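Action item from last week, closing it out:
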Amino acid sequence: MKEPKAKMSAAAKNEAAWAWAFIAPTMLGLIILNFYPAVNTVYQSFCKTGDFGKGNTFVGLANYSAALSAGETWHSLWNTIKYAIIEVPFGVVIALILAVFLNKKLKGTSAFRTIFFLPMVCAPAAVAMVWKWLYNQQFGLLNNIFHTNIAWISDPKLAWISIGVIGVWSVIGYNMVLFISGLQEIPGDYYEAAAIDGATGIRQFLHITVPLLSPTTFFIVQTRLIGALTVFDLMFMVMDKTNVALQNTQSIVYLFYTYAFTNGNKGYGATLVVILVAFIMIVTVIMQRAEKKFVFYN
């Protein structure tokens, strides 16, 4: 026979009540701001927005059929992947090199850390305005310095690289701070033992730093890859709607914004979001499996 459950004392009930009171705001915030919008987005992907943006008409898989057969969907997804190919590897490698140098006890390291982290705290609108000025074909600083006449953000073949450079510049500081945190967790005894054995600085970096820093590297790569695949504000503020290179740079989130908020077709826009989420989940699963082979936990 099951023993009867012991009744909660008044003090235990009071503690439980206070516990629920403390976590209730967070739970309500998650439900209202995260769970409900996510469920509603999936529901809207099966609907067509009514006339004048009112009401939803259930259309089944019609939106998915239209989106998956549309060339602009795959083109925008490929633009997003191209951006990620530039931002993630270069942002990680450059940040790692800077972190290794700034982790040493040198004069002015705190100032340099602050300088490199500043892009992360700058408003995206300010970043876009400054880089648009730098890239300006007629009056831009880059063309004036190099005495060129390059259409950095107007040339369809070059614009996506220029956007990627801005992305790399924006995330270096964030990645660097995480790498510095990971470097400080590596015991100094490993480097001392390697130095006694005659290992050079490069050998120490390749055989000690890189393997022991792999958990941090994996975390940065995974989070930045998701961030790159959902990029929107950078492209929206740098690329004007009249820009001839827009079709070669717009991300899939930019395409979602166009359909959902400019054209008023929220059902089709929600479908694009669901497709992107499915793609990100596939990428995440692949990375989680790769973690077992490439990540070393000491």
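Closing note: The chain is about 70% helix and 0% strand.
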